[in-house]
């Protein structure tokens, strides 16, 4: 499965066509571009391929993860704060329906990692949380929504990337968990996914000494793929590698595609050198290192999956020009998720919610995406005064709503306030009645070890208008905060 780029670059298109015609690849994973171009490219590539191609999307929070002209859905950790799984299923199914209309058959989701490490540089809010039982339930519900929409869901990153402190795109992370920790934390969601009928599993590029003592990535380990995943856990579906061009594997394995295939992987995703990868497997087959039986296992699994997805019927290869157009269902889902995921982290007794039409000041720290929060606040209290840092400093005894806005456009942006802003916030809280709203990762709250200095703290997840409007309603008691914290707070 190779990477394709729906950005209109003709040289990249020609290269993908060459891979299809000359190398007979089995699938395409689209990267950055636009929805219209991806639809054109999809139909063109499918027409050229003798055997219908798998079209995959690495789109955990919807196609906006890759496409420039699509609005985002919430991150997994936002969904992890929901009190039940009903909206998770509805969202995943809606995402699946949209993807199928785009001509996509495979989604590299859900993320089933238990984000046990707050400093994890690559998973973070891509995970549902740090509670294995909740993550298992939520990931399985997400998988069911995708698969009920006709999408082949791929749980990742087996056997668990949540405890990493290194980005596997850059180097090979070591997961130093014991057998007991792996069994009681990392493997819990994957067991539930497998028992629930997940069709695909992606194996991460991780060093896990407890499972593989040879210091090789588990993505090329027979002990992990053949013995643990297939024999012990009973997984019969398609096994995908994580991207084979990542430093986590290229720096430690000479022929990553061959090594992963020998270990039991079926779909080899984005080899660094496609020609070399195919040649290494072909040579090993001719030399007898790969027997016909091993080859047949993966070929039959892939063809069976393509047939089950209906790829033998040409109508399933055609995309819909209106596939990603936002409609009332998308708007409603995002509104409901925002309203029901917001967490009341702390509130002084008898001081929450706020009374409408009181004399209130509003201060924004960071950069809000738009004015949705202030505009919604003004719906409840017309006299609200928007103030700057300079004008708010001398205030004493005032009721102040402070919105902290991080850049949440990707999960990997820094969520923390600059130290000077954090200091200002502490000063304000010691002199005024501060109602704090944090539009950022939950880990941003670690900057405030003593939340009792505030009158109220709401965690509102994402710097998006739906969350801004929902938070204003909760602040003024128009809706209860029913969100559940998906990760442990520092004590």
Number of strands: 13
Name the CATH class of the largest domain.
Alpha Beta
How many H/I helices?
Answer: 16
Q: Radius of gyration, Cα only, in angstroms?
A: 24 Å
Q: What share of the residues lie within helices?
A: 25-40%
Number of structural domains: 2
Distance from N terminus to C terminus (CA atoms, Å) equals 45 Å
Average of per-residue pLDDT values: 95
Structure in words:
There is one protein chain. The protein is α/β, with parallel strands linked by helices. It has two domains: 2-317, TIM Barrel; 342-475, Glycoside hydrolase family 3 C-terminal domain (Rossmann fold), CATH 3.40.50. Helices cover 38% and strands 12% of the residues. It has 16 helices and 13 strands. The chain has a seven-stranded parallel sheet. Strands 8-13-12-11-9-10 form a six-stranded mixed sheet, sandwiched between helices. α4 packs parallel to α5. It is elongated. 50% of the residues are buried. The model has no long low-confidence stretch (mean pLDDT 95).
Question: Could you give the topology of this structure?
Answer:
Blueprint: E1 2-4, H1 10-23, E2 27-30, H2 35-48, E3 54-57, H3 76-80, H4 86-101, E4 106-107, H5 132-148, E5 152-158, H6 179-195, E6 200-203, H7 222-232, E7 238-241, H8 247-250, H9 256-263, H10 274-286, H11 292-308, H12 328-341, E8 343-347, E9 360-366, H13 372-380, E10 385-387, H14 389-392, E11 399-405, H15 419-431, E12 433-439, E13 456-459, H16 465-475
